[in-house]
Amino acid sequence: MSQGDFVLVTRGEPHVLRSDRKAKPFRLLDLQRPPAHLGVVRHGGGGKPVSTMICGYFSVSRPSESSVLDLLPPVLKLESSANRDWLDTILLRMVSESALSLPGQRAVLSRMTEVLFVEVLRSWVKSLRPGEGGWLGALGDRHIGKALQLLHERPDRAWTLHELGRRVGLGRSAFSARFTKLVGQPMNQYLIAHRMAEAASLLEVSDESISDIADRVGYETASAFSKAFDRHHGLSPGRYRAARRRTSTVHSSSSGRSTGESWGCLFG
Q1: Alpha-carbon distance 64 to 167, whole Å?
Q2: pTM for the complete prediction?
Q3: Which class in CATH covers the domain with range 197-250?
Q4: What residue ranges do the domains of the chain occupy?
Q5: Stretch 34-40: mean pLDDT, rounded?
């Protein structure tokens, strides 16, 4: 890492940061840190810092199959670039926000972290070659990107390869082959997985009935939806909702971090 570099540890893997391979790592837990989650931590004396890092983390409460974090490399590095003024702008604003205990500080920092993550994703996607990055990388393709947008906007629609291909300007065979190559799985398989992920989210965060959720993700009957959901998640929709809400209650009363954790650091 050099000045201005940004590193995202996408799935919270254990890691070591040190000046060179000969340097003995210093345990982060041994640092004298302020009790709050925000603040400045200094190490190595009272002189002017040789290096400065801005660090933070975020987590997702319900990592799903084929989630964005699963598509990213274990460690994603963005090198300093004149085309990345947005990175400096966001991080400097986060530093100034962290330095002042103002009302709504947590909410502001949370939203800024989300914006930062989206910008990092955009930058990474631009660096991908065709066929890399799964569905996230395929968003950059003018045909398949539009198809994915349609699938996400209307998961309830009875999409066929012919209709979706026609909507994006490709014949059935060409569209099918291109979708599978860029996304990494056939269109129908991707659509089912997306419907199941959408249904799981609705079961967790809403009080909608099973039949209403079935209709929203493209199933004519609650019975057909329940069978598909059980096949995909290993639980019926009702049991899944109950289990997730019990887990959510435990997490809300615990100080531990949830799965899907990611870290980001800017080195200066």
Answers
A1: 28
A2: 0.69
A3: mainly alpha
A4: 1-36+67-127, 131-185, 197-250
A5: 64
